[in-house]
Specification:
Elements lengths: L7 E5 L4 H17 L2 E7 L20 H20 L3 E6 L3 H11 L4 E5 L13 H9 L4 E4 L10 E6 L9 H11 L2 E8 L4 H20 L4 E7 L3 H11 L4 E5 L13 H9 L4 E4 L10
Parallel strand pairs: 1-2, 1-4, 2-3, 4-5, 6-7, 6-9, 7-8, 9-10
Antiparallel strand pairs: 5-10
Helix pairs in contact: 3-4
Length: about 290
């Protein structure tokens, strides 16, 4: 369970309220982890931008110039407020594809983006672009729900279930928790009522608890039984006033698939707090 340090954070910018919250959260995490920030904007039609941008004789034909200027102003504010290095990038194309390209080109360790937004992000719940990025990005993604205003990460919920891949998220959570000095709420989620299964599961949870404590972090442990793992995780996050909930994007539960595909989208849609989504490594060994 080696911790994965953060060096570069990608923040897709769409100039929406949700996107602006993501910029602040991403910049805060960058400051805490000493990471660089890459701001990425994918150009759209002029109608997708605030009308005020084109007031006082502004020419909509100079849209890229205006967008570049606005992104530059955002970068300057981030540097002044958080003291981090910021690189800007403006491009065109399909948002999810361009974000994935930027991850590879810039060796990105983490994406922070709004789960809702304007234009290309206009679904009732989590935007189509955010959904695609969460499922396809080769690195972890933190999605910020619309309206989330709290700054800082003082409490993280780390759900662990009976699946093979569940513990993989630990190495991604530890560096964030350590840099933010956050309490890690380790939530063991089990469906079986068999005493033997519970005993084995408690050993698994203890292994994760040891890793958290060895990292010098405060760990609060709780094991619950339930069939709806996703709901239990969100309920517990609400109980402890957490600012971050970590999940796997693909294979969280062998029994119910609560975080697989559409279910991963469901928990991000309904979570009141940011969600850290991590793709499992298929070759992961149970003994890791």
């Amino acid at each position: 369970m080696n911790s994965k340090n953060l060096h570069r954070i990608l923040i897709p910018v769409d100039f929406s309220p949700s996107g602006d919250c993501a910029v602040e959260q991403g910049a805060f995490i960058a400051n805490a982890t000493r990471a660089d920030v890459i701001l990425l904007h994918i150009m759209e039609g002029a109608s997708s931008y605030p009308p005020a941008w084109f007031s006082q004789g502004s020419d909509k034909g100079k849209l890229q110039e205006i967008v570049t200027q606005k992104l530059g102003e955002m970068a300057e504010n981030i540097t002044k407020k958080y003291g981090v290095f910021v690189k800007n990038s403006v491009t065109t194309g399909k948002p999810a594809s361009k974000i994935s390209e930027a991850v590879v080109d810039n060796d990105i360790d983490l994406i922070v983006m709004g789960s809702h937004g304007a234009s290309g992000f206009q679904e009732l719940f989590m935007g189509s672009t955010a959904h695609k990025v969460v499922n396809l990005a080769p690195c972890p993604v933190i999605t910020i729900p619309e309206g989330f205003k709290s700054m800082g990460i003082k409490s993280i919920v780390l759900p662990i279930d009976e699946s093979l891949h569940s513990r993989q998220k630990v190495s991604n959570v530890l560096p964030i928790a350590a840099k933010c000095k956050a309490v890690v709420h380790l939530l063991g989620l089990i469906q079986s009522t068999d005493k033997s299964d519970l005993a084995k599961f408690n050993i698994k949870v203890s292994t994760v608890e040891d890793a958290i404590q060895k990292a010098g972090l405060v760990c609060v442990r709780k094991v619950v039984k339930g069939n709806n793992i996703a709901m239990e995780a969100m309920k517990y996050a609400d109980e402890v006033n957490a600012e971050l909930l970590a999940i796997m994007t693909d294979h969280e539960s062998n029994m119910t698939g609560m975080f697989m595909g559409a279910f991963a989208r469901q928990i991000v849609n309904h979570s009141k707090i940011p969600v850290l989504s991590i793709k499992p490594i298929v070759s992961y060994e149970a003994s890791a």
